[in-house]
Amino acid sequence: MNDDTLAGRRITARLDRINLWPYPKKYMIIVGIGFFFSFYDILTIGLALPKIQQDFIIDLHQATWTITSSLIGYILGSFFISRLADKHGRKLGLTLSMLFFFLGSFGSAISVNLTWLIISQLITGIGIGAEIANITAYIGELAPASVRGRSTSIAIAYGMLGFAIIPFVAYFLIPHYAYGWRILFAIGGLGGILIYLLRRVLPDSPRWLVINHRLDQAEKIVAQVEQFAQKKSPAILPKPKMIATYAMNHDTSLKNFLDKKYIFRIILFTLIWFIYYIGNYAWLTLVPSLLVKHGFSITTSIGFTAVASTGFVLGSIISVFIVDKLERKWLAVIISLIWSVILLLIGWFAQPFLIMVVVSLQPPPSQQLYRSYIFIQGKISLPGCELPVYRLPMGSVILAVPSVVKLFFLLQP
User: Considering just the CA atoms, what is the radius of gyration of the chain in Å?
Assistant: First the structure.
């Protein structure tokens, strides 16, 4: 064991012995705002779709190309920008994600035809795909192990606030103003600029620094973290517990994903994300259009979506208190069953009133499921990696296959 390996383990162990969020609260808020605007655009395109159909004189089949292009962007952003973040640092990934999000959002706001909007949504999707992958990795690496679940839940809760707030904003903008849907996209672009400026104060990921042998920088950050934690809690910090016994080797090459030890996990999470994305995107992007198709006005459809989306906040609050108290595997199983039953009722009994009642129950289990899958996936380590670092390329591969298959469903008339 060389000196760098031992020093890296000690630094990580010192971070993990802390049992609270050892950073200023503003760091959590800044990270959370990133989730907020990532989830913002996921819902925005679905809310704007009925009005876009009217303005561009297109049918629903043509309009869904905007969703398709966004999903293609997810694949590109989560894979390529995450690879850059793995090699050059998480903050680079977070910066690039906001750059693409900003450009795509403003491009959507000023689009003059469907082609322009499709290209803009592709660019936005690149930003969102990169943002979700990188911000999840960043918060997981920043937080001590004992509070990682709770910290991630709090950060995601900010994003769920976006799901709850944006439909109400859309309710007052889209039906009542000719350019209401454009203003909605422009707000997202302004949010991207705000996030970029705020993130300049965030620290680098100490775990990423350790695994890339930048120990002096990691040591400085962890020392500051320890001082901050002792100010928040006067109790003496526990003795660090050393982790792992094999050598560190920062190897993120794609051949690792095909290792026979991990191929089953890759297949399992591909299926999990495939099922989740099909069910969840039906809610996030097509419910307003579905209600309009059943005879509801645009105003009524968006209004109902707004009321139903408040369930995301309820689910977020519940998750913050239970995520570190229940075993995540079984939590995911229980929530999966509830979520599946709700989707089955929506699909089997496609009556307007039942859709309105049952869909309102969908958000809480949906976002609980998202959290559970993220936490479990984040615990999977790849060959040659000894630290519990979220593997961004792995998340990209897992997301890519179901996203591609989902395009087939979206393109059907």
Answer: 21
Written as one letter, the residue type at 155 is: A
Read off the pLDDT of residues 292-334 as tens digits, 9 standing for 90 and up: 776 777 777 777 777 776 666 666 666 666 655 666 666 666 7
Query: Domain locations in the chain?
Result: 3-410
| Contacts of 242-248 spanning 24+ positions with Cβ under 8 A | 242/9, 242/10, 242/13, 243/9, 243/12, 243/13, 243/16, 243/386, 243/387, 244/9, 244/386, 244/387, 246/386, 247/1, 247/5, 247/386, 248/5, 248/8, 248/211, 248/385, 248/386, 248/387
- Distances 210 to 4, 34, 134, 151, 394 between C-alpha atoms, Å: 9, 25, 17, 21, 20
Place of tokens 């859709």: 355
What residue has token string 């560190």?
A: 248
Q: Which residue has the tokens 């998340």?
A: 395
Distance CA 46, CA 207 (A): 37
pTM metric for this prediction: 0.76
Please give the CATH topology (third level) of the domain spanning 3-410.
Growth Hormone; Chain: A; (1.20.1250)
